[in-house]
Write a structure and sequence with these properties.
- The structure is a single chain.
- This protein is mainly beta.
- Among the domains are: 63-144, Immunoglobulin-like (Sandwich), CATH 2.60.40; 162-255, Sandwich (Immunoglobulin-like), CATH 2.60.40.1930.
- It is 14% helix and 42% strand.
- The strands form four sheets. It has a five-stranded mixed beta sheet, with no helix packed on it. It has a four-stranded antiparallel beta sheet with strand order 12-11-14-15, with no helix packed on it. Strands 1-3-6 form a three-stranded antiparallel beta sheet, with no helix packed on it.
- The chain is rod-shaped.
- It starts with a helix and ends with a strand.
- Residues 52-61 have low confidence and may be disordered.
């Protein structure tokens, strides 16, 4: 009997010890749940370091996040023109500026603006901004060259005249038109402007003189109609004058 009482006593103590452990685990679990649900706050006070400067973290704009490029020119582009149209492109829907002037982009994100250029270096700045406020910019330089004015060349002295004439319809009939085309050149075979001349035609029915217009780039041309009463070979000549020099060329037609 004494042994049974001792066993029961030990079992009782074991049950009590196990109950304490279970209650302890339950209390710890409950505390963790209350903490996770915000049942109480844990305040941690960090030590303050005196004379420690406050550090401000700044971020830079990531231009790579925005498409922005020149479409029709590159940096260092040279021109003699007084103006140029800048064409650039950005992402669809972005705001865009060229030299601080806001411009509207099309459905493909392309935008453009005509810029006046001064002689020398001209800085061109394009900018874009997306709906999140992220910005990007690019700049190039266009160089406008000063256009050299051509100095007037002194009048060259003409020492010789050269004349060449051709006829269309060299065998005309009565009432048909004949064209006489001539070119006047100087001693260097350069066309002469301002030469004067005339064509004389010896018709069987009587003579006829036709004045040429003053030569332009050496060219001179007249037309005439074959009058009635003329058959066979008809002869004539062209006479051209410039700066006191005169040159003559003969021609002939055969009237059918």
């Amino acid at each position: 009997m004494m042994e049974n009482k001792e066993i029961n006593k030990n079992l009782k103590h074991g049950y009590i010890f196990l109950s304490v452990i279970v209650l302890t685990v339950f209390a710890i679990s409950l505390s963790i749940e209350i903490y996770l649900k915000g049942g109480f706050k844990l305040n941690i006070h960090l030590p303050i370091i005196e004379n420690e400067p406050i550090r401000v973290i700044t971020t830079q704009t990531d231009n790579s996040r925005i498409l922005l490029e020149f479409q029709n020119i590159t940096d260092g582009y040279n021109t003699k023109e007084s103006s140029i149209t800048i064409v650039a492109k950005t992402d669809i829907g972005n705001k865009a500026w060229i030299n601080s002037k806001e411009v509207t982009s099309d459905d493909a994100g392309t935008f453009e603006l005509k810029i006046n250029l001064t002689v020398g270096n001209n800085d061109i700045l394009i900018e874009a901004e997306n709906s999140n406020g992220v910005k990007a910019n690019k700049k190039i330089t266009i160089i406008r060259e000063e256009e050299k004015k051509e100095e007037p060349q002194p009048n060259q002295t003409i020492t010789a005249l050269k004349l060449h004439c051709s006829i269309t319809n060299i065998q005309p009939s009565i009432g048909q038109t004949v064209s006489l085309d001539c070119s006047a050149k100087d001693q260097n075979s350069s066309p002469i402007n301002g030469a004067t001349g005339n064509a004389k035609i010896n018709w069987q029915s009587g003579g006829q003189t036709i004045a040429f217009p003053n030569s332009q780039n050496g060219s001179m041309s007249v037309s005439f109609v074959v009058p009635s009463g003329n058959n066979g070979a008809i002869r004539g000549n062209v006479q051209v004058t410039k700066d006191g020099l005169t040159v003559t060329s003969n021609f002939s037609i055969t009237v059918q």
